[in-house]
Write a structure and sequence with these properties.
Number of helices: 10
Helix content: 25-40%
Structural class: alpha+beta
Strand content: 15-25%
Oligomer: single chain
Largest sheet: 10 strands, mixed
Distance between the termini: 12 Å
């Protein structure tokens, strides 16, 4: 994948350090070392799935697939009637399990005692079309209900959760500023994709070393920091590598502020439709 493709993917999926303010479950804070987040309950996942497979969302999925992920703000070469026929022919359906998506927790970065490494930000349901296209339907809990806030091409969220489970279990989570996927397993943070391998090395790092690593990267860029007040939230120059925290890893590329805009739009009124650029490499 090219650097430009990675930047575009990051722009599609990144969550800023402040988060969406729409966490699926409250972060766990307990005595002792930081660890796994509180799991999203089966009942909550069932409710989120119900929202994802509502007739209105399935209709939007049909148009998403008909447009090959091109958002409604961009014009297609086909007309409205042809798009409608293609949307019906897409016959979208959900496939596989609805999974919670965990994101690096700012409290863990800041060193809050007992903070988990990540928090649940949203759930993802894999959707497929009749011609084999794949999309991910994101839902967040708002009040007593669940709301679909994004449809993104591809199925990274479910894919990495499955990869973590197949490799021995643990909690899959994202460091969105790098678009890196990890699994927390037996007190170690292990890589699930190329970005994560560049971050922590092939063998991963211990939880304490990972905390030191992300503190070096983002400790002065958290909400309320001078960096944040200057309006730079999202852009950063990661100066720390896994080598500095615990052996392994290589230097990381910078991610620009423009590449970190992404998903803050989820807090808006409508469902966001986004095509992720480039193919993921696990």
């Amino acid at each position: 994948m090219t650097d430009l493709s990675k930047a575009r993917r990051a722009a599609v999926t990144v969550l800023l350090a402040a988060g969406l303010g729409l966490a699926v479950t409250p972060a766990a804070h307990a005595d002792g070392p930081a660890g796994a987040p509180v799991p999203v309950t089966a009942a909550e996942l069932a409710q989120a799935r119900g929202a994802a497979q509502s007739p209105a969302v399935l209709d939007q999925l049909g148009h998403f697939f008909a447009r090959k992920g091109v958002p409604p703000t961009q014009q297609l070469t086909i007309g409205a009637a042809e798009e409608a026929r293609a949307a019906s022919a897409a016959a979208p359906r959900l496939s596989g399990e609805t999974v919670p998506v965990y994101t690096l927790d700012a409290a863990f970065v800041s060193g809050t005692p007992g903070a988990p490494v990540a928090k649940a930000e949203f759930t993802a349901s894999r959707a497929v079309s009749a011609d084999g296209q794949v999309a991910s339907v994101w839902a967040v809990k708002q009040g007593d209900g669940w709301r679909v806030v994004n449809i993104a091409s591809g199925g990274d969220e479910g894919d990495y959760a499955a990869k973590a489970a197949a490799g021995g279990g643990g909690t899959a989570f994202r460091e969105p500023q790098l678009n890196a996927w990890y699994v927390l397993r037996d007190g170690r943070v292990l890589p699930l994709d190329d970005e994560a391998r560049r971050s922590v090395g092939t063998a991963g790092v211990g939880l304490a070393a990972y905390q030191k690593l992300v503190q070096q990267r983002y400790g002065d860029k958290l909400p309320g920091s001078a960096y944040d007040r200057a309006g730079k939230g999202g852009g950063y120059q990661p100066g720390a590598t896994a080598t500095e925290a615990e052996g392994g890893g290589t230097a990381l590329p910078a991610v620009t502020a423009a590449a970190a805009l992404g998903v803050t739009a989820l807090a808006g009124a409508g469902v966001v439709l986004r095509r992720r650029a480039g193919a993921r490499r696990g």
